[in-house]
What does this fold into?
Amino acid sequence: MQTHHHLPDADRLSVVAAVILLGYALTPFVSLPERLVSLQLPGFLFELRLNFSTIVAVLVSLIAAAGTDWLIQTHPHLEGKVRLPHWLLPALTAWAIGVPLTTLQVGVEWWVVFTLGGVLFLLVVLAEYIVVDPQDIRHALASIGLTAVSFALYLVLAVSLRAAGLRLYTLILTLAPTLFLISLRALYLRSGGQWYLSWAAGITLVVSQLAAALHYLPLTPLRFGLLLLAAAYGLTSLAAGLEEGRGLRFVWVEPLVMAVLLVGVSLLVRV
It folds into this structure.
């Protein structure tokens, strides 16, 4: 079987990364009044606070998705494949970079996060470009890296939302669709290009129920996020093992080990 090792166009990759980082670099120097959007629904009041940081995060995520699509269009082995799955993780990564950047004061820590975030974004886009071609010699490594980054970003999102003290409906409306897309993407990568919508929906439903229960417990943000991550990754790994046809004696080993490890870490942390 012929193998490939293509890389994205360096000029296009530089332009996409520069636009995203420039957007976050300008955020500390621009201040706009915050606006409160409220909607009275039967039984509760829905409120959404809009500020400049929120607008930048949304715009940067959209630019990341569009920029990734722009890069992938140049892949010599695209061959009419659907490009939509490759948008998700770069957009989430771009959004995740902004979570600490919009809360930290400009200083050494801010610049460290800014630099590491830029490097992470470049690696994610590079990996997305590689996995377009299943015959690329780096495909397996890139798939593993994308799956790991996906669940790491889910942990960052869960911790950030818990720390923000959001109401339950806002928490679920944010975490549920994110997990659905992440689990769907992870299963897609592990299966070599198969979509498992029912598995992703079932995993999202179970973890959302767990999130609703944990929401009312006095858990720290990191412990809350680790418990959700244990359930999300464990169930996704179990679903992948079942679809791969592993024996019942072995299919539960990886999910159980990772879940126990993450739960153990959650019990040890104090923040």
Summary: The chain is about 70% helix and 5% strand.
